[in-house]
Amino acid sequence: MENIYTIPVNEAFEDSVGESPRCPFCLMRERLEANEIDLILGASMMEPDTRIKTNEMGFCTEHFDTLLNGGKALPFALMMESHVDHIREKLKGPGLMTGSNAAADIKLLSELERSCYVCSRIDYHFTRMIDTAVHLWESDHTFREKVSNTERFCYSHFAKFAAAAKERMKGKDFSAFYKVIYGILDSYTESLSEDVSFFCKKFDYRYAEEPWGNAKDAPERAAKLFCGDKAKSK
C-alpha cells in the first residue's frame, strides 16, 4: 500500500548512489529540511496554526541561522515580530516585581531553548519515512534491489532503519534484511578505514609522491559516518 512517503523514499534511495554516494536517509532529511524552510518562509508563514506553533516552539540555533540567511527578510521579520511578542507576554506575570514568577520564567526559557518547530516537523515526517522504507522492503522486490544497491549508511540512520525493521519483522525475515544492510555498512566502513589510514600516511614523507586515490576526503567521510551529512569541512 502506497502512502505520501513512498515516492520520496524511493527517490532518495535512487539518488543516493552514483558518483557521489550518500546515506539515503541523510538525503531524505536534507530534503525534508529544505521543504520545511521553504514552507515556513513562504506559504505557511501566515497560516494561524503554523504561527501558533512557531510562537510556542521557536527554533534551534541551526534553524534560526538557516531562516535568518534564507534570503527572505520580510517573512522572517514578521515571524520574529510575532514570536518576540508572544514570549515577552508569557514572561509577564503578577509576581514580576517581586520575582515570585522567576521559576516559571526560567522553565519557559529553558524549554524554549530545547525546542524547534522545524526539527519537530522533520522528525515527524522522517520517522514515517523510515517506517515506509521498512514496509517497502517487505512488499516491493524492486525496492529491495534499491536497498541492496545502496553504497553507504551513516551509523545513526543505520541503527534507526534496523530498529524499525526489528519492530515489524521476525526470525528469518529480519535476519535476511539485516544481512543485507549490515553488509553495506561493513563494506563501506572497511574501505573508509583504509582511506583514513592512507590519508594519515600521506603526511609521512615516504608517501608524499603516492597518489591520493579516494583518501583525500576520508576525514570528512569519517565524520559523516558518525554525524550524518551535516558534518562538512569548511
Could you characterize the architecture of this molecule?
It is built from eleven helices and no strands. The chain has 234 residues and is mostly helical. Helix 2 crosses helix 7 (117-139) and helix 10 packs antiparallel against helix 11. The longest helix has 31 residues, at 171-201. It is globular, with a radius of gyration of 23 Å. The two termini are 43 Å apart.
Q: What is the residue-mean pLDDT, rounded to a whole number?
A: 93
Figure out the total of helices. 11
- Beginning-to-end CA distance, first to last residue: 43 Å
Fraction in helix: 55-70%
Please mark out the parts with pLDDT under 50 across 5 or more consecutive residues, or reply none.
none
What is the number of beta strands? 0
What order do the SSEs take from the amino end to the carboxyl end, as H and E? HHHHHHHHHHH
The largest sheet, given as strand count, sense and whether it forms a barrel, is: none
| Structural Rg | 23 Å
Approximately what portion of the residues adopt beta-strand conformation? under 5%
Sum up the overall morphology in one term: globular
Structural class: mainly alpha
Question: Based on the structure, what is the oligomeric state of the protein chains?
Answer: single chain
Summarize, please.
This protein has eleven helices and no strands. It is 70% helix and 0% strand. It is mainly α.
